[in-house]
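Example 9 (inverse folding). The structure is encoded as follows.
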C-alpha cells in the first residue's frame, strides 16, 4: 500500500499520541454497492444505475446494475462468490471521496481543548476521505501518528497527508530542519517564510528529498513567479499571484501596518483590483509551465464579503463547539479574528475582489492549470466539513460546471498530492468514495451534513447528506458520525453553562 509507505518512515511513537476514540469503520471482504448513479471525478457525465464491486480496499468492477438478478464477484480463479455486504444505493449518487487540500487538524480553539475526533468526524461526515494537513499547530509528530492510526483503521478519520511547516533563521538551519522533518514522516512542507535565502535552501533540500512544497506566500519579497521557479507544488489562497502582477508594492493607505490583522485582511480586499491583466496572464503561464497547483480556498474569506451570513451559518447551532465559535469572534490577538469595524465599504471591496479572483482561477483552469478544493476551516467563521462543501459551491460560483467542481475536489487533489490510485471511481483504484442521498450535480447543498429540504408528495421533507463515506474500503456511517458530533456539542454546552 503506497499510503503505508508514505508514513512508514514515521518515527513518532504511537504511545505519545493521544488518540481519539476507536474507529467505527468496517472493511468488508466483498462489498457491493447496488444501483447507484456515479460521478467518476474525471469530469465525465454521470452514469447509472451501476453496481460497484469492492474487494477489500480496491474497486474491482463497475458495471450496469443487474436488477432482479444476483450480483456476483468473480475471483481470480473464475470462482463466483456472493458479496459479504451490500449497500442499496437506489436513488443515490456515488462520488469519489472528497480531497480537502487545506485541512488543519486542530485539538483546541480559544485556549480550550476539544474532543480529538470532533474535526475528523465532521470531515468524514461530509464525504472527505483524504486531507492534506498543511502544518498543524498540534505538531508534525501528532499528525504523523494520527495518519498512521487512520491508515490502520484504529481511528475514524480520513487519510491524512501530513505536511510540516518549514522556516528557519538561516539557510543551514533550514536544510537541517527539512531533513529532520522528512525523518519525522512529513509528506511535504508548508512554507511562508519571508526570507529568499532561507526559501531557496528549503526548496533545494526539499527537492533532493522529494518533498513537495505548498506555500501560503502572504506578502513578502518573493512572489508566485519565484515560487514557480523554485518548484513549489501548490499555491494556497492567492497570495503571490496578484502580487506578481502589480508594479511595485500594493497601494496601501499610509497608516497601514502588516501586523494589524484588520489592516491586513481589509486591504487584501483591494489587491486584485490593482493588478495589471497582461501581467497576470503572464504569471499564470509561468505557473502553468511549472505545473503549479492553485488551491484558492475561496470560502475561508467569505466573511469579508458578507459578515452577517458567515456569522449565522445554520450548522453552528448543532455542530459548533462553544470554543470553536468563540474563537471566531473579533479579537486582534488571534489570527483571523479581525472583524471589528467591518464596514459596508469593506464588503463591497471584497465582492469586487472575489469577482476578479474567481475570473482568473477560471482562466487558469481553462489553460490547463490544476485547480483544487481546500477549506482552511477552523478560522474566520468556517466550520470543518461544511466549509469544504461551501468551497465547492464557490467553485461553481466562479463559473465551473458541477462536474468540474467534483473534479477539482477529487481527481485534481489526487494529482496535486501525487496519489495515483484515488480521486477517481475506476476499477483498480482505492475504494475512496461517498454515497450521497440525492443528486449533488443538481444541488451541491445535498452534500451538507444538515441536508436539504425537498418537496415530496406535497410536503417539505429533509433529505440529502452523505449516507456512507468509504475510505480505503472502510465503510463509515456518516449520519452516525455526525450524531456523535451533535452529542459532543450538546455535552460541551451543558458543561459550559453548569454552575
Ligand atoms: Zn491554513
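The amino acid assigned to each position is listed next.
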Amino acid at each position: 500500500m503506497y499510503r503505508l509507505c508514505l508514513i512508514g518512515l514515521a518515527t513518532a511513537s504511537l504511545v505519545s499520541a493521544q488518540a481519539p476514540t476507536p474507529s467505527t469503520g468496517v472493511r468488508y471482504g466483498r462489498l457491493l454497492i447496488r444501483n447507484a448513479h456515479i460521478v467518476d471525478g474525471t469530469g465525465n457525465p454521470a452514469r447509472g444505475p451501476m453496481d460497484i464491486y469492492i474487494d477489500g480496499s480496491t474497486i474491482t468492477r463497475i458495471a450496469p446494475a443487474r436488477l432482479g438478478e444476483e450480483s456476483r464477484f468473480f475471483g481470480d480463479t473464475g470462482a463466483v462468490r456472493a458479496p459479504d455486504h451490500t449497500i442499496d444505493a437506489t436513488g443515490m449518487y456515488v462520488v469519489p471521496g472528497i480531497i480537502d487540500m487545506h485541512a488543519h487538524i486542530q485539538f483546541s480553539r480559544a485556549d480550550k481543548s476539544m474532543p480529538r475526533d470532533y474535526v475528523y468526524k465532521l470531515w468524514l461526515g461530509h464525504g472527505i476521505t483524504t486531507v492534506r494537513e498543511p502544518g498543524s499547530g498540534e505538531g508534525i509528530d501528532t499528525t504523523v501518528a494520527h495518519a498512521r492510526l487512520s491508515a490502520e483503521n484504529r481511528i475514524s478519520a480520513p487519510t491524512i497527508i501530513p505536511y510540516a511547516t518549514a522556516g528557519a533563521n538561516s539557510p543551514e538551519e533550514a536544510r537541517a530542519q527539512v531533513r529532520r522533518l522528512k525523518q519525522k514522516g512529513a509528506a511535504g512542507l508548508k512554507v511562508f517564510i519571508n526570507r529568499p535565502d532561507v526559501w531557496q535552501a528549503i526548496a533545494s533540500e526539499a527537492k533532493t528529498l522529494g518533498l513537495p512544497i505548498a506555500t501560503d506566500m502572504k506578502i513578502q519579497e518573493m512572489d508566485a513567479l519565484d515560487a514557480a521557479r523554485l518548484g513549489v507544488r501548490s499555491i494556497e489562497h492567492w497570495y503571490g499571484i496578484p502580487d506578481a502582477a502589480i508594479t511595485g508594492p500594493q497601494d496601501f493607505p499610509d497608516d497601514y501596518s502588516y501586523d494589524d490583522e484588520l489592516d491586513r485582511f481589509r486591504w487584501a480586499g483591494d489587491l486584485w483590483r490593482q493588478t495589471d491583466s497582461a501581467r497576470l496572464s503572464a504569471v499564470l503561464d509561468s505557473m502553468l509551465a511549472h505545473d503549479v497547483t492553485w488551491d484558492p480556498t475561496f470560502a475561508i474569506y467569505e466573511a469579508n464579503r458578507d459578515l452577517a451570513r458567515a456569522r449565522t451559518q445554520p450548522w453552528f447551532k448543532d455542530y459548533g463547539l462553544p470554543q470553536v465559535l468563540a474563537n471566531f469572534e473579533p479579537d486582534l490577538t488571534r489570527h483571523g479574528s479581525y472583524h471589528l469595524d467591518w464596514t459596508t465599504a469593506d464588503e463591497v471591496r471584497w465582492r469586487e475582489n472575489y469577482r476578479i479572483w474567481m475570473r482568473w482561477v477560471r482562466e487558469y483552469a481553462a489553460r490547463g492549470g490544476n485547480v483544487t478544493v481546500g477549506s482552511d476551516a477552523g478560522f474566520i467563521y468556517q466550520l470543518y466539513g461544511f466549509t469544504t462543501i461551501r468551497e465547492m459551491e464557490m467553485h461553481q460560483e466562479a463559473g465551473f460546471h458541477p462536474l468540474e467542481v467534483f473534479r477539482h475536489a477529487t481527481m485534481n487533489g489526487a494529482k496535486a498530492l501525487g496519489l495515483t490510485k484515488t480521486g477517481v471511481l475506476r476499477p483498480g483504484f482505492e475504494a475512496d468514495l461517498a454515497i450521497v442521498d440525492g443528486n449533488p450535480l443538481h444541488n451541491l447543498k445535498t452534500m451538507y451534513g444538515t441536508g436539504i429540504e425537498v418537496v415530496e408528495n406535497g410536503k417539505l421533507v429533509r433529505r440529502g447528506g452523505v449516507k456512507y463515506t468509504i475510505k480505503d474500503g472502510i465503510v463509515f456511517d456518516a449520519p452516525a458520525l455526525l450524531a456523535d458530533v451533535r452529542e459532543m456539542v450538546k455535552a460541551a454546552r451543558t458543561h459550559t453553562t453548569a454552575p
